[in-house]
Amino acid sequence: MKAWIIKQVIKFILSLLGLYFNAKVFIYNIIFGAEGIGHVLQRIPQVFIPPIIKKYGGEIGVNCRVLPGITFHNLSGKMPFRNLKIGNNVYIGRNVLIDLADKVVLDDDTALGAGCQVWTHVGDYTYDFTDYHEKKEPVLLEKGVLVWSGVIISPGTTIGEFTRVGAGSVVTKNLKPKMFYAGVPAKIISARDI
Questions:
Q1: Which of 100, 140, 163, 182 could disulfide-link to 158, CB 3.0 to 4.6 Å?
Q2: Which residue range(s) make up the domain with 87?
Q3: Whose CA is closest to 75, among 25, 125, 36?
């Protein structure tokens, strides 16, 4: 009986916190626009992040962990996460940056280590900004990809299924499936026997 009461109290507290964070997102969205939603997501516990991503247009599967400190870049509109698709069993570490100027797909069983950056756009301009233009392209991490900490993923790249990318690497082109890559730019280190 005592364990049941404790579970009910915890459930009640979590529901109150959920209401609080949803209200905070709503208010920040009104005041600061879509970027306000991203601001709140950087600072809330991981259990509340996936429902807010879903509420504002993102797709996210089951059993996903999105740790606090996540930064979303290029949020806009009423559904700012419309360019984000996260599969099942996905792990996103602390202080990851995801640019949503174009589509980002993290397929099932993928992981992004702490401090990774996923970019979907690159800007080019003259020194006085009179000729600014952007190139936008989607990023896809196929099933079972593991990207270790501090990796930068460039726009328009696909990382093939079950590939591993070593910490601190820079992905500038498509990576083949079932390989281990590392370096700047990322190069094949070895094949993976899976």
A1: 140
A2: 2-191
A3: 36
Spatial contact of 141 and 110, defined as CB atoms under 8 Å apart: yes
Closest-CA residue to 118 (of 162, 50, 72):
72
Both tokens assigned to 62? 């089951």
Q: How far apart are the first and last CA of the chain?
A: 48
Question: Domain tally for the chain?
Answer: 1
Give pLDDT tens digits for 48-96.
Answer: 999 999 999 999 999 999 999 999 999 999 999 999 999 999 999 999 9
Lookup result for tokens 């089951």: 62
Give the model's confidence band at 1: pLDDT under 50 very low, under 70 low, under 90 confident, else very high.
Answer: low
pLDDT, tens digit (0-9, with 9 covering 90-100), for 139-162: 999 999 999 999 999 999 999 999
| Inter-axis angle of helices 2-32 and 34-41, nearest 10 | 150
What CATH number does residue 48 fall under? 2.160.10.10
- CA–CA distance, 77 with 111 (Å, rounded to integer): 27
Tokens describing residue 47: 């259990």
Burial of 149 (0-12, 13-18, 19+ CB in 10 A): middle
